[in-house]
Write a structure and sequence with these properties.
Oligomer: single chain
Largest sheet: 5 strands, antiparallel
Strand order of the largest sheet: 2-3-5-6-7
Helix content: 10-25%
Radius of gyration: 18 Å
Structural class: mainly beta
Order of helices and strands: HEHHEEEEEEEEEEHEEEEEEE
Number of strands: 18
Distance between the termini: 42 Å
Number of domains: 1
Number of helices: 4
């Protein structure tokens, strides 16, 4: 078995999926999943967030799936002393992820995952930056998944671990980000060899975009993907063109 195929099969095992979910990347979404693309007249404006669709209005576009978008996933950050901590979302709330920062120079960050107070995993998260490395902790179908941002002086890179294994390596992703559980199944966006796409329940679908803004902070955080129980929404660029995109199980 060659290394790439072994990696793809390994990724399917990590996500708790069957081998049927190991098909090559497609340009069509899995059955039931809908991709709605809205071309924009230009880049979104910040504070407040406004965008101008070429067809319709911002209000009419957002109203279409407003109810689904409102069923979001609040990630609540608490503090254990000086250390930020989040609790898992999904089938179990006994999992927690905590960020600690060393006092050495330069300071280094480490994310630790605990279950019932017992440490089960840790990973470096680079150097302090304006963004919190703890992006999400999820439990589903007997698995757990952690999304963190590994930061260096030059780059912020999204990493996703499933049951302690880095899927960036298993899927040969340059970056994996915006992990969530969508209708009970794992979903995330990724970049690989300069191409963007998403993975849903182990099925990869290519996206014809050059850029999906994510991990922005401060006023630009309104451009980050919005995650909800049955959908995800994000902005994207193709060349100089901007789009507002919603992917979900809309039941239509």
């Amino acid at each position: 078995m060659n290394r790439l195929l072994a990696s793809r099969l390994s990724l399917c095992v990590l996500l708790g999926l069957t081998l049927a979910g190991c098909a090559p990347p497609s340009d069509k979404p899995p059955v039931g999943l809908v991709v709605e693309e809205h071309p924009l007249a230009g880049p979104p404006a910040l504070d407040p967030l406004t965008f101008s669709p070429l067809e319709g209005t911002q209000a009419s576009v957002l109203a279409r799936h407003a109810e689904a978008r409102a069923r979001g996933f609040p990630v609540t950050v608490e503090f254990v002393g000086p250390d930020p901590e989040i609790t898992s979302i999904g089938e179990s709330a006994e999992w927690k992820a905590r960020l600690t920062t060393s006092k050495q120079a330069p300071p280094e960050q480490v994310v630790t995952v605990e279950r019932g107070g017992q440490e089960v995993f840790s990973a470096p998260a680079g150097m302090p930056s304006p963004i919190l490395p703890l992006q999400g902790l999820w439990t589903y179908s007997g698995h757990w998944a952690l999304e963190l941002v590994d930061t260096t002086a030059d780059e912020w890179q999204g990493q996703v671990f499933v049951d302690g294994q880095l899927i960036n390596d298993a899927g040969a992703y340059d970056e994996a980000f915006s992990f969530q559980i969508l209708d009970g199944k794992p979903f995330f966006l990724f970049s690989r060899a300069g191409r963007l796409g998403y993975s849903y329940d182990g099925v990869e679908v290519e996206l014809d975009y050059d850029r999906v803004p994510h991990y922005h902070c401060c006023s630009e955080s309104v451009l980050n993907p919005v995650q909800a129980e049955s959908m995800v929404a994000f902005f994207a660029q193709r060349g100089e063109d901007w789009f507002y995109v919603e992917i979900g199980l809309f039941g239509e």
